[in-house]
């Protein structure tokens, strides 16, 4: 398969409603200048960094809900969401069908129409075997997903927000980049990871940095192919210690190919509360 160079600063058009917003049956869901308007109100607290251990059982690096009790049902999808002291809204006139997502870290984004935004408080992430059992590589809140058409119980697209203890956004980005290879390692077989140049931009008045990794040679399964895109954005949010991180993972499926443009579209919707 051919992996295009991940695009530069986001300018985008509304995606047409179709399965998963993918090209060639693409998974996750150029581009004209239309910014989704996300209105974010109130301030909230910070979120602890991901725990280093979980009891989830998996033979290799795995994407799974972190243990928080019984998984809640998916909520009705909406252009607005209130969670832990923050409210985020999508301007439906500019991006009809998109869903607002936010958590206690206050960084809001919009998910494409065919993605599902989890209920407030849901966590997911990647774990790997370690001497203690299963250890968390990265944990995400404000979760949205798109299902794998071949294996519907799995997700090929995952997005979410987390926190870094490092207040230096470039240093925090460097730390987050170290998680990419472990996330896509299977049974000790590490993939090939190539990072695009780091992009600097603004989310409102706040500086932000982004890198997109093209991941190749992932060990395949009957549900997933050998490639992925992995986007990391790091910025700051008033009232939150350290940095706030927005992650998008787009995995190649058994019969579908990821489209990097969905990364641009989602990053363009990021909104800080102040």
Automatic annotation (TrEMBL):
Give start and end of each DUF8017 domain: 93-272
Q: Which InterPro entries is this protein grouped with?
A: DUF8017
Instruction: Report keywords, A-Z.
Output: Membrane, Transmembrane, Transmembrane helix
Q: Where are the transmembrane segments?
A: 20-40
Instruction: List the residue ranges of the region (Disordered).
Output: 47-93
According to the UniProt entry, which residue ranges have a biased composition of type Low complexity?
47-69
Q: Which Pfam families match?
A: DUF8017 (PF26056)
Name of the molecule in the record:
DUF8017 domain-containing protein
